[in-house]
Amino acid sequence: MTLIRSVEPFDAPYRPAGLSADPVDHDALHQRHPAYGRFARQLGDTPLIPVPGPDGGATILAKSEAGNPEGSVKDRVAYALLGSALHQHGDRPLEELRVLEYSGGNLARALSRLCAELGITARFVLSSASPRSLLDTLAERGALVDLVDKELGFLEVVRTALRTAEEEPDWTLLYQHRNTANLLFHQHSTGAEIVAQLDGRTPDAWVASIGTGGTLIGVLRALRERHPGVRAIGVTPAELPYGSPLPPNGLPKYAGSGGMGDGLKQPFVTLHDSEVEHHTVSYPRCLEVMAEFHELTGTRIGSSAAANWLTAKEIAASLPSSATVVTVFPDAGTPEEWERIGR
Ligand SMILES: Cc1ncc(COP(=O)(O)O)c(C=O)c1O
Predict the structure, then answer these.
(1) Start and end of every Tryptophan synthase beta chain-like PALP domain (predicted)?
(2) What per-residue confidence (pLDDT) applies to 21?
(3) Domain total for the chain?
C-alpha cells in the first residue's frame, strides 16, 4: 500500500491526522466485527445512470449513491474512516474506542449507525443549522452531539472538533479532510466501480462537488489510471467558493460541500490543484434544479447532486454528442429540503 504514502504530505491548513497510515485489512475487521462486515455487504455497487443533458451535447452519466445503507456517498467514507480507527485500536475492547468527528450531516448519519451496531461511543460536532431529522436519528442511536453556531460557518465546526480532540485525548478524531482512508476508499471503491461501469467508454470530464474533496480526487485518480485525459471539475457553493479569501459565513449552502473560507483549501484537492477547474452554484439555484430534475425524471436528488447535474450540463453543452461527462449524485436530499421545495 505505497499509495497511502504517495498522497503525503498535504499542503494542509490543519494539523496532521493522528491516525496510522498502515494498510487496513478489511477482511480481518469483518471477521472480528461482524456488524462492520454486514455494513460492507450493503455498501457500494451503486448504479451509473444516464441523466438528461443538453440537446446535441455530451452524454451525462451519474453515479447515484442514494442506495447506500444510510442513503449517501458518505456511507463509504464512514466505513473507511471507522476501518482505520478499528485497525489502530487493535485487540482492545470496543467500549474503549470513543469516536469523534465533525460532519455536514451524512457522515454523522452513517457513522452513528455503524458505531451503534458495533457498540462504539460516537460524538459529532455539527452546525446548529443541522436538520431536525438528523438530530433525531443521532439521538435515537445514542450519539453525543456538540452544536456550533451556524453563523460561524463550517470551518468553526472543524476547528471545534480539532480543539476537542486536543483537549480530550480519549476521543479518537477520524478527521475526514486529512484521513487518507477517505480518499483511498473513493479511489478503490467509487472510482473503480465507475471505471468498470464505463466498460471501456472514455470519460471526457468528471464533475463532483467538494466537501472534503475525497470523492472528486479519489475518483479522479481511479479514472486517470485508465483515462489520463479526463478533465476534473470541482463544484463549490457560490456563497463560499473553493479557496475563497473571504471569512466563513452562515449563509445556507447546498449539502455537504463548501469552501472553508479564510483562503483555506481542502488538502485532498491541493494534491491536484493545477488540474481541477472550479465552478460554483448557489443554494437557491440548487433547490430550483432539484425540483426540475424531479419533474423531468420522477427521481429525487439532493442539493449537491443538483449542483453537480447543473454543472455537468454546462460542461456537456460545450462538448460534442460523442463525448461523455461523468458526475455523482451524493444523496436524495433531506425531508426538510423537500418540504421547502413543496414536493
Ligand atoms: C450530500 C453531500 N454531497 C457532497 C459531499 C462532498 O463529498 P466529499 O467530502 O467527498 O467532497 C458530501 C459530504 O459530506 C455530502 O454529504
Answers:
(1) 43-331
(2) 58
(3) 1
